[in-house]
Amino acid sequence: MSVRVTFLGGLGEIGRNCAAVEIDGQIALIDCGLMFPEEHMLGVDLVLPDFSWLVDRRDDVVCVILTHGHEDHVGALSYFLAEINVPVYGTQLSVELAGSRVEENGIDATFRALGDNEWAQEGPFKFKLVPVSHSIPHGAGVALETPEGIIVHSGDFKLDPTPVDGRPTDLPTFAELGREGVRLLLADSTNAERPGFVPSESSLGHSLYEIIAESSGRVIAACFASHLHRVQQITDAAIDSGRKVAFLGRSMVRNVEIAGPLEALSVPADKVVPIGEVGDMDPSEVCVVSTGSQGEPFAALSLMAAGEHRAVKLEEGDTVLISATPIPGNEKSVSRVINGLTRRGANVYHGRNANVHVSGHGSRDELLTFLNVVRPQAFVPVHGEYRHLKAHADLAETMGVPDVAVLEDGDAIVLEGKETRVERGAVPAGYVYLDGTGVGDVRRAIRDRRHLADDGVIVVTVGIDMHTGEFVHGPDLDSHGFMDAPDEILKMASIEIVDMVGTGKTDADTCRRKIVQAVRTITRRETARRPVVIPVVIEF
Predict the structure, then answer these.
(1) pTM above 0.90, yes or no
(2) pLDDT single digits (tens) 178-196
């Protein structure tokens, strides 16, 4: 009996992590994540995996297994469960975080929390969640028993010797799996190019405290809402330096409320104040823990940088901590926010000028250690851009792993007896865009938006007697974004329209076509630009 693993996202990109394991014609997903849009994806809100292959086989899908609660691993669940509603397994915090988002979207789904190393069975899938240390509590790898041997998915991990929550990566269990024989390993590749070991998360505690304690004004600390280890360290440093804490941002407030009862975050209730009271407090007595570390246009930190946030107005001498590294593609946005905060007189600390961030993903020596512990027969690097995957594959080959393959989205690896084979392009795995409330392929719309952004638009309004072809009104030309079009170019275009439309009986479609042709002739000749032309023809 063969076992197949098909990848719908997460290979060659940061985000959309989603792999489908198939046994005896039935399918279990490992993670169901989204990707945030890149700069060129104009107007797109989120990018999802292509679930069309799974929708066609909806009766074969039996469950989803989550490694942890980050959006790039759970953020697409609502859209998947709306099509295929199956049980979702994960650690307690993971299912709580994912479940709250799914519930917000009005979907009634079944979430089942598993303890560390607790075996579960769903259909032909027997699996357990193995503790790993990451930048969010309750992270886990996945071990599945299959007819072709054990499959291990590392989840996102690092080998942190002193994790904030005292829950390190469970190397003894991974070693035991390795001794039993791991047929296939899928492992995090994010930092495969980075030598050495990533510093412990707890190593930030002292530097965060120093920055906050030495600040005389208000402190605003921004990080991912899901990075609860970082939130814990920031709040500890703020409270130890005599400040109270206010949480800002919908996702931040929600995650703090979820994490508290699960003991994934501990902040004394008497040290927390509502964000609405911050403006009336002495600046030296408060620390705001906020979202917006990625420079999102409408996030709290961006609004502060623009002086537009209702609750928090920055003043000279305030301190801003950006305790995160930019996701690839967000560097310019983050830089703009830092510049805006600095212009407002804030002292800004970020990953390039202070020790305020460490990665949650293991570096090269940690990956080598993990490979040495698990000792798989076959290896596929996951979670990373293509160069990360290739670097991780090279490490596996130096460790003597027999079968190493660098795959991309849409590819599958098949385990059958002693054979390990790769099937390229096994399923559709392109980007599916969330654009407002619509989900689908909006590549044409993105191209049009890019065209509008590059060349602008000219709107032409005319009234024409369709029997004689005479102009009753116009042509009136109105340009937007077209290089502040000089009047003479618009006049030339107007004359060209009259000449090209001509006289005699006509129809609206012909007029529109000739108007577009006339305007493009002039703008291309005079400016070498190709604006979008919108003809508005009023029939008389």
Answers:
(1) no
(2) 999 999 999 999 999 999 9
361 is catalytic: yes
With beta carbons less than 8 A apart as the criterion, state whether 449 and 478 touch: no
Mean residue pLDDT of the chain comes to 89
Q: Which amino acid is at 323?
A: S
Q: What are phi and psi of 464, to 5 degrees?
A: -130, 135
Structure tokens at 236: 């500890």
* DSSP line for 463-502: EE-TTT--EEEEEEEEEESSTT--HHHHHHHHHHHHHHH-
pLDDT in tens, 200-238: 999 999 999 999 999 999 999 999 998 999 999 999 999
Query: What single DSSP character describes residue 198?
Result: P
Nearest 5°: the CA angle 296, 297, 301 is: 70
* Cα within 13 Å of Cα(505), Cβ side: 1
Q: Which residue out of 188, 236, 318, 411 is catalytically annotated? A: 188
Query: Which residue among the candidates 361, 383, 388, 392 is catalytic per the annotation?
Result: 361
Active site residue 441: no
Q: Which two tokens stand for residue 184?
A: 């296939």
Question: Which CATH class, in words, describes the domain spanning 456-539?
Answer: alpha beta
Mention the CATH class of domain 3-196+359-440: alpha beta
The verdict on domain 201-349 having CATH code 3.40.50.10710 is yes
Asked which of 187-191, 276-280, 498-502 is least confident by mean pLDDT, the reply is 498-502
